[in-house]
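Re: weekly structure request thread

Next one in the queue (523 aa):
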Amino acid sequence: MFKKLCVTALLITLLNNAAHAHGSAHNGGERIKLSVLGRYHSGPYDKGAAEIVAYDFVSQRAFVTNSYAQAIDAISLEKPESPTLAFKIDLKPYGAPNSVAVKNGLVAVAVESNPKQAPGLIVVFDINGKHLNTFQVGALPDMVTFSPDGKYLLSANEGEPNDSYSDDPEGSISIIEVSSDIRKQTQSDVRTAGFTHFNSKKLDPEIRIFGKNASVAQDLEPEYITVSADSKKAWVSLQENNALALVDLDTASVVSLMPLGTQAHNTAKTAIDPSDKDNAISIQPWPVKGMFQPDTIASYEVNGRTYVVTANEGDARDYKGFSEETRVGKMSLAKSLTEGSPKLKNPKNLGRLKVSKVGADADNDGKVESLYSFGTRSFSIWDEQGQLVFDSGSQFAHIVARDYRNLFNKGDSRSDNKGSEPEALALGTVGEATYAFIGLERTGGVMVYNITDPAKVFYVDYLNTISPSLKEDDPNAGDIGPESIVFVSAEQSPTQTPFLITANEISGTVSVYAITPAAAKHH
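Done, posted below.
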């Protein structure tokens, strides 16, 4: 029987005690906190006016994709407390911007075509917005990044199907080796790391290949890229497939696919609130398996070993021509699920939870044995082989319930569908400590964790700027829908103090958060 557990106070106490103990004994002993430093409004509410942000420390500008204006907004951060628009880069001649990256005076923009199943573009400008070159890449380039050494320019080409699922392009990773003069480079400089060689291979069954009439290469959908510190390898999140791909940059080839598996939400440490109809915050264990399905990923090195950090947003394939999504209340459940809890399908229990139909009825007897939900409402750390080292479990839910109760799962309206939805992610070093900054797309705000030791991760801070008393479209309502985060180190900051930049898709704001030492807590 899955009973309601009153564990919030206990877990938060343990979190605070652990954070205090670690913070005082390890990593220089310094704890940090976030505070709002400055804010710029890129455009209207809920029009995608601020989505992906990149930062150039030489010009002290943030470059932000503005889908509403079909442009890149170049925002001056010479005074981070007063961000101002320096200029716009017009992208109407090229298409809709999905991502932007900056390195060594180059601004690279990932642009999707119309229709998005056609090959996309990587358009390169100089730091002042002058066009330098355009490269064709795979379908729907959803993310672009430079390798740390600046040698490679990479795009994750998602290759999403059309709504009828009649056109499903292959996913791929494009790799451009950047020369000393990118203006002279040609299309022949674009190499493609594809997945066709996996079409004939037997894959781990935990890698989700399930699209309508899709080959493996068509089904795999690259979402986000992180590159190793030595610029030789890249890990790519395959969100819908619940896996990571490892790419060799020298040979431009996908070396391996790593399934991420599921997190059982049946313990106090991994509990969820799955109902938007119970008029309560009720974080409990349930017989549900959460698929990690990360969006943003990042990586860092500890003692010569690379670790991959993931924001486990979750995503369902939901098209007119094919949909995997349903609710528990619409399923016929096997006795193995209902014996201990016959009222699982009640809307106040699991009935409203959105889950996948794929793999739910493994023996095809018409009864569902396993409930697979989208995302894990957490962030994770994995080793190079894709083995789980740390996961935050239900901590996000408990922290929000304690500190911003009125904003929990967007007023409880998202409890049935991915909860707080961790999406944005950035890593940064302050003093001797390494931190993960995780943006919660639906709940809002940024979580801060000390990840210096991947095996001893602990919570540090959470800031949410949303004003629940104001309507969301009020310009003063705060930062809603953080889509991306960039960490700016003290060395690259105009003020010699570190800060975060967040691009917030719903509120259309680009905000700067100061990172300062937290006052010591005395117990």
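Confidence is low (pLDDT under 50) at residues 1-10, 16-29. The two ends are 38 Å apart (CA to CA).
Next request, please.
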